[in-house]
């Protein structure tokens, strides 16, 4: 092989490798950009999910405070949302632990279709148990709902309006 032939082959190899390296760099940078966009989208989605959870918690806490939802049902629903929000960290807060306590004591009670399918006597027995639980925890549930609403408001949630307006109560105020 002559020097001229070697130089031509070397020039051809360089001419082939430089654009290939440029294209590889372009692909690398594009993959990095896409990963950054995906991470931003995921963070935004997580932030929106947290915001939605806080808003739902504030609405439920307000409904419990205003006695627009059964206290036991409110505690059960709040406990599930708190678990989604902080993976059980709420049990470390004394003002929110009531939701977990009521959940632990009421989770065996039938709900939805299972409740409908119960014999009348069993349904009445469970209702008595639920009422006793609500009486036992009434003050703590109301304080917990108040603390939860304040927590949500502190996190930037806008206060909700009442879910339902009691027409009889509204008429008395006028």
Core attributes:
mainly alpha; membrane; 78% helix; DUF2489 domain-containing protein; coiled coil; 174 residues
Written description of the protein model:
Residues 113-134 have a biased composition (Basic and acidic residues). Keywords: Coiled coil, Membrane, Transmembrane, Transmembrane helix. The chain crosses the membrane at residues 6-25. Residues 19-148 form the DUF2489 domain. Pfam families: DUF2489. Helix 1 packs antiparallel against helix 2, helix 1 (3-65) packs across helix 5 (120-154) and helix 2 (71-86) packs across helix 3. The model has no long low-confidence stretch (mean pLDDT 88). Helices cover 78% and strands 0% of the residues. The protein is mostly helical and 174 residues long. The protein has helices at residues 3-65, 71-86, 97-106, 112-116, 120-154, 167-173. The longest helix has 63 residues, at 3-65. It has one domain (3-157). It is elongated, with a radius of gyration of 30 Å.
């Amino acid at each position: 092989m002559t020097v001229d032939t070697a130089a031509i082959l070397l020039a051809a190899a360089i001419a082939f490798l430089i654009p290939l390296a440029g294209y590889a760099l372009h692909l690398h940078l594009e993959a990095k950009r896409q990963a950054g966009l995906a991470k931003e989208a995921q963070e935004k989605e997580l932030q929106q999910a947290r915001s939605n959870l806080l808003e739902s918690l504030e609405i439920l806490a307000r409904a419990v405070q205003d006695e627009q939802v059964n206290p036991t049902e409110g505690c059960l629903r709040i406990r599930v949302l708190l678990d989604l929000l902080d993976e059980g960290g709420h049990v470390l807060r004394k003002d929110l632990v009531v939701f977990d306590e009521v959940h632990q004591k009421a989770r065996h009670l039938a709900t939805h279709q299972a409740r409908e399918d119960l014999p009348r006597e069993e349904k009445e027995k469970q209702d008595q148990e639920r009422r006793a639980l609500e009486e036992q925890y009434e003050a703590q549930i109301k304080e917990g709902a108040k603390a939860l609403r304040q927590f949500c408001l502190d996190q930037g949630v806008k206060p909700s309006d009442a879910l339902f307006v009691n027409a009889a109560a509204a008429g008395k105020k006028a």
